[in-house]
Amino acid sequence: MTMDADMTDEELETGGLGRDPTLLIVEDDKPFSSRLARAMESRGFTVSVAENVAEALAKIKAGAPAYAVVDMRLGDGNGLDVVKAIHEKREDCRAIILTGYGNIATAVTAVKLGAIDYLSKPADADEVYKALIGSADDTASPPENPMSADRVRWEHIQRVYEMCERNVSETARRLNMHRRTLQRILAKRAPR
User: Fold this and answer.
1) Is pLDDT at 5 greater than 50 in this prediction?
2) What CATH number matches the domain at 9-133, 3.40.50.2000, 3.30.1360.70, 3.40.50.2300, 3.20.20.140?
3) Where is the Response regulatory domain (predicted)?
4) In the Cβ-directed half-sphere of 90, how many Cα atoms lie within 13 Å?
5) pLDDT (tens digit, 9 = 90+) per residue, 73-88?
6) Which of 66, 141, 153, 158 lies most in the core, judged by the most C-beta atoms within 10 Å?
7) Across the chain, where does the E strand assignment appear?
């Protein structure tokens, strides 16, 4: 990270974190969340960890963090619900979504709900840190390998699914697809 002349003395002292270095990590993979928590603490954050949506919502109710790293798929729900709850309590929170099931539709939804970035797993601590404190001017480099036809189809299905507010029956009807076929597609990881 380059130190900007526009940063205050306090931001320079805290590495760009500002006055409130609170970070909520919502991740159900315990080894990954503990490694990420340690790495973020070493970078100046005050970290709290939640393993599911219910625990995250309770922590947000007690006090919304300035930063958040939220897994997309959690055992008891969707990480997008956590991002939405955070931004209802604190609009200036810099939240990012981590997912192993990345697609354009959920990335767009995450940004609409207030996320500032969307990272695919496995993401390392440096990528997460850069996303959390990066400026809006930071741009991603173009992909080296464009999407396959299977991936484009999968992305379209995901976009319609999100437009239908994650309603499988309505999505299947709009795509003229059998409901069980759609459920199988949604349960699988994204094709490369």
Assistant:
1) no
2) 3.40.50.2300
3) 22-136
4) 22
5) 888 888 889 999 999 9
6) 158
7) 22-26, 46-50, 67-71, 73-74, 77-78, 94-99, 115-120
